[in-house]
User: Which sequence fits this backbone?
């Protein structure tokens, strides 16, 4: 089982409008609602890859109730129909996603993605999230330590809700390491800085997060600097340029076969799912990176924000280029 | 008791952001949630004026539940503190607002007002509302006819949710007239056009709604044309220019003492509450118009969208100018 932790879960709303015009009134022509927050997105992709997942974090209030109802409906039951025998490999059956969220008194936040139908551009509005009390944080810590006993790996994902101390992720990283469970940390700002010092197995910053952490926008310099701060492995996601992995076993650069156009929402979460599933399956670094790059590229290509296009994923997987940096190049 | 009907109730969310920038990500710094839809806003103002109100219409799903919880908290209990005896008139005690909404299977819509903290400008996003079934509409009609037996007046307010036929308001107007209950219709487009033909006692279009209905932007021409289409009285709200009333008893123009700056959200709903409470209290046309103009101006001046500033209302009331058009001027 893979555990994902989302301290600031969200009810993600997507609104389609013909065009977003500031100071005008808009009738929303299409809308969708789904359980969100980075760790929940990671769990959805892990499930699609056939990995049993348990999600924890906080949920509360009326939006928390809706989020949990939607979560209970995962994995989506639109299983592929019967196919002619022998033509294609059997599809991977989606694995269950188990709700182990801790109930809080506050209201789970909503996030609203307003999608301009003319251009596909998205304007994002994020509520701050519920104020979490000290007792609620203690309840989460207890739940987390129980869940670690059955976990093959854990992902700690996203922003902190109000009331949670900035060293929260460092505390969760230490608990995972004490339990011997590989831990990936995907956050930003001060919670990332503090969390790295607790020596997580992996971090997956994007270029902005890396620059904020290290002050450098030069990928190799920034990634190596991030690793020196305490992370065992740093997988920098460089958008259309793919990923740069600086690990104890070597340095690799992985890139999609071509640049793609689409919606990058959730591409980073798909990459986390790729890295974590590869780790649990004992794949080599190049194969983990191939999977992570193919999944995040297939997420950009998907018509639904945050989902990945399975056919594109399978088509891309063997075509992702992975190059090892030789010691001289290091 | 005054009855208000809101077929497309809404959970109104207000998000404060430093500045709304299309295609950027925004952290919402302040947010509020309240029960909305025009008829609910009218009821809130009627309650503040001391009129018992019953609200009907549709509510459903998780957002409907939240809306009804918030509605149960009305009227707000922040009663004025004790004052030195004899210094000011006793404040009007808010009257109860009773929930007689019909439960539907669909989810009540949300509306989101994104307020730019730098300029005060608002960008509005409105979900379409639940699909209402024929059985749900029949249940509403039954509830409405029961409620009419105890009503002194009724206001029919706002847009129609999906699934409701465009002649719905005409049907509700006819039922009110058959029951001998004065009926005010406040909607727009085709539902207004159809509703007028059923001969409501009053309509309260704004300049855009009038122009859409009659093809004219000249206030006197358009207002008289609207009256010829079937409404007994037409009160055109002309924004900062006040109101023009074309009624069976005469024609009046009412205007605030000065132009004011502020948020016009809800000003029309306050005007409806002013007109309807004045009708029920048997006020003269000039006094009804004075109240409607003072209430809507005090709504523009209120720091909270949709609330009215009571001190401003009391100060404005005697200063609203009302002028009768003599037959020659007609």
Assistant:
């Amino acid at each position: 089982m893979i555990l994902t932790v989302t301290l600031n879960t969200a009810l993600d709303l997507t609104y389609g409008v013909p065009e977003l015009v500031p100071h005008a009134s808009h009738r929303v022509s299409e809308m969708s609602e789904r359980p969100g927050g980075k760790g929940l997105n990671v769990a959805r992709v892990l499930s699609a890859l056939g990995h049993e997942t348990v999600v924890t974090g906080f949920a509360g209030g009326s939006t928390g109730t809706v989020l949990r109802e939607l979560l209970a409906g995962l994995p989506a039951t639109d299983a592929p129909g019967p196919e002619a025998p022998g033509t294609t490999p059997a599809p991977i059956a989606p694995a269950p996603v188990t709700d182990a969220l801790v109930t809080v008194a506050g209201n789970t936040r909503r996030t609203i993605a307003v999608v301009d139908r003319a251009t596909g551009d998205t304007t994002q509005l994020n509520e701050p999230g519920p104020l979490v009390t000290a007792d609620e944080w203690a309840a989460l810590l207890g739940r987390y330590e129980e869940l670690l006993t059955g976990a093959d790996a854990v992902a700690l994902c996203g922003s902190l809700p109000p009331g949670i101390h900035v060293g929260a992720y460092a505390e969760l990283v230490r608990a995972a390491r004490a339990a011997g469970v590989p831990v990936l940390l995907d956050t930003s700002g001060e919670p990332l800085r503090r969390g790295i010092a607790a020596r997580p197995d992996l971090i997956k910053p994007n270029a902005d997060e890396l620059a904020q952490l290290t002050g450098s926008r030069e990928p190799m310099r920034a990634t190596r600097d991030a690793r020196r701060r305490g992370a065992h492995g740093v997988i920098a996601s460089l958008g259309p340029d793919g990923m740069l992995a600086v690990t104890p076993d070597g340095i690799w650069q992985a890139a999609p076969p071509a640049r793609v156009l689409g919606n990058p929402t959730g591409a980073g979460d798909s990459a986390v799912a790729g890295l974590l599933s590869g780790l649990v399956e004992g794949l080599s670094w190049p194969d983990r990176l191939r999977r992570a790059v193919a999944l995040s590229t297939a997420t950009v290509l998907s018509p639904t924000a945050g989902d990945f296009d399975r056919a594109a994923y399978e088509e891309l997987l063997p075509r992702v280029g992975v190059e090892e940096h030789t010691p001289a190049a290091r």
In short: Confidence is low (pLDDT under 50) at residues 77-84 of chain A.
